[in-house]
Amino acid sequence: MSTDIHKVINEQVTTHEVVLYMKGNPKFPQCGFSANAVRILNALGVKELYTVDVLQDEAIRQGIKDYANWPTIPQLYIKGEFVGGSDIMTEMYQNGELKAMLVA
User: pTM for the complete prediction?
Assistant: First the structure.
């Protein structure tokens, strides 16, 4: 995998507080897992959400999987730290961990 794409990804996750790599965009998610991720972040009142549509860029789509060593999309990053995908987000939302990370 190109280190250039990793630099782009690293810049995205470190210059924005909350970053979601997803299929589609928040107004028109292209898969149920991405839609779920957006619903959770909206429910938590996230205003400054930076999203990246992996369907628009194959290099990002593959690169983000390598970057996090995580095989699926969506992927959530908070303050530069990889949080997880839709299932992990759901679990962390339900137990309050995700809200705590966002306000920390």
Answer: 0.95
